[in-house]
Amino acid sequence: MKFKTHFWTAAVLVVSLAAAVAAQNSPANTGQSSAGTVPANADSIVVKGVKGRVFAVSPTGRSIRVREGMVLPEGFTIQTKGAESFVDLFLKATAATVRLGGDSDLKIDKVTVPTTGPNGLTTKPEVKLTLNSGEIVGNATGMKDDAKFQVVTSRGIVEVKPSEFAIKPGAGLVVKSGVAYYTTSNVVDGRTATTRTQVAANQQFTPAAPTSANRPANTPPPQVQPIPAAVSTALASQFNAVANIELASTQPPGTKPPVTPPAGNPPNSQIGGGGNGVPNTTTFDQVVKSNSPR
Length: 294
Fold this sequence. Notes:
Elements: H1 2-24, H2 27-30, E1 45-57, E2 63-65, E3 71-72, E4 77-91, E5 96-100, E6 105-112, E7 126-133, E8 136-139, E9 148-153, E10 156-168, E11 172-188, E12 191-200, E13 203-205, E14 225-226, H3 229-243, H4 284-290
Parallel strand pairs: 7-9
Antiparallel strand pairs: 1-2, 1-3, 1-4, 4-5, 4-6, 5-8, 6-7, 8-10, 9-10, 10-11, 11-12, 11-13, 13-14
């Protein structure tokens, strides 16, 4: 009885989460009419590689194990469990690749790919993420000038430009090449002061923790510094890996059989569909088989 209950629970979880993703991408939840163009939430954040235990948590709190080939929409949070775990992501809207490191928590706030509406106007590509904890390493060297890519941290907002960058635990920004900007706000001498700091190639910057308490106007702000040799060495392999995410795979060739979705169901139209080894139309028997111990 317990064995059957386990399969039934797995089936309910997959079906429920798939429904949550479908609802998340419905016109009602994207603020667009069905006749207009809808931001492509579900085909914009693609999982390119996974190591260890990685989970996607829906806005309602449901969790599913992340696998290579999944697509993740707005509102979902990606969590890596364990210091050695990571997940590689391709951000279609900004043509950027990102690796979320171990013991990290990253929320997908907004994803908009360029689309042209009935009025002929084209939306600008945009990605907004919130790094609640942990570390990300990214490569946005192919990002177009009109694209907008932001990462919210506990200390401000990182505005990513074409660059190779990393945001470390403690919200420090490291830029290997290109440029990025860090915007922070604090109360200084009774007034809220917003500062936008440019961080160029081979530089790092860690802003002070935000506070609502008053600070004297003569308090020296944190300064941009050259990247220490130890930090540069520690990040070298990660920058290289992120630059090759589109070509890399965490699974040896030939270990994952090709999946042919049923007619009329485009690949990767929802979590659990397309390139992760589970057809878009998933029956109860398929769910049981995919969750069976081997």
